[in-house]
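Service request form, structural biology core

Requester: graduate student, group of Dr. S.
Request type: structure prediction, single chain
Budget code: on file
Notes: please return the result as structure tokens.

Sequence provided:
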Amino acid sequence: MNHGSRRLSPRIWQHDWLALSGLRRSLDEMLAEHRLLEPKPVIADFGCGDRPYEPIFKEAGCRYIACDLEGPVEIRIIAGQRLDLADASVDGVVSFQVLEHVWDIDWYLREAFRILKPGGWLLLSTHGTWLYHPHPTDFRRWTRPGLEDEISARGFTNVATKPIAGPLAWTLMIRLIAYREVLNKIPLIGPLLFAPLAVVMNLRAKFEDACTPKAIHSTNASIYMTLSRKPGGA
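Core staff response, request fulfilled:
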């Protein structure tokens, strides 16, 4: 499976299944609970990569605008420069697991704010806790209030935040990544041994996540997904 397919339809034998399945579930919940896909909005994906969630938006009849540094995109992102999108021209901006890789987050969030129509929304996810993973850079991790304040400081109004994978779960996920690195170095048998190990550890992580008190889970998550709005509109 390519990375986009893994994000859209994660499998339990993958090392990051709990994180990716949590992202997909939180995305679906946010879209449904806040009716973000009505009526068929124009959506810009900031840092789209291989566009893992594009099918969700296109199947809902949205116009999807792919934006990134490279690749087959509609809008080329050049760090620090104004995007080739008009002011107040889109209904929604999505940004999934990108903000930790951005050095100038002021420029990034202000560009999102600029192109949004009044009342438009920003749906953004990034890490609270995770291993260092440059792609090609990796600069930050957030606390929940820190992330919410970074976004609101650029003019947005916070609407909702969903934490994904609490501390009992993400400690297991990080250990699973370490086991994967070790087993992948063993020819033939290593990858075969990893799949059942991943299933067992992922099931344990899901169980422990369900047992984690909400007060701990909400402020010590591996990932946070936030929904914010640009003031104005109907």
